[in-house]
Amino acid sequence: MKMDCSSRWLGIVAIVACLLCSGGVLFADETPVPGKQVEQHFVSAALPEQKFGYLLFLPKDYGKDNRKWPVMIFLHGSGERGDDLNLVKVHGPPKLVESRPDFPFIVVSPQCPKDHSWNGEVQTHLLAELLDRVLTRFTAEPQRVVVTGLSMGGFGSWTLTSRFPGRFAAAVPICGGGDPETADQLKSVPFWVFHGAKDTGVPLKLSEEMVAAVQKAGGQAKLTVYPEAGHDSWTETYKNEAVYDWLLAQRRTAPAPLPTVNPHISFTRIGNIELKLGKPEEKNSFSATVYFSTSTPCATDLQARIAPHRDQLTAAILAWVYSEPIEHLVGQAGRERTRVAAKELCERIVFNGRPDVPFDVAFDMYFVRHKGVLKLAEMPKK
Question: Model pTM greater than 0.90?
Answer without folding.
Answer: no
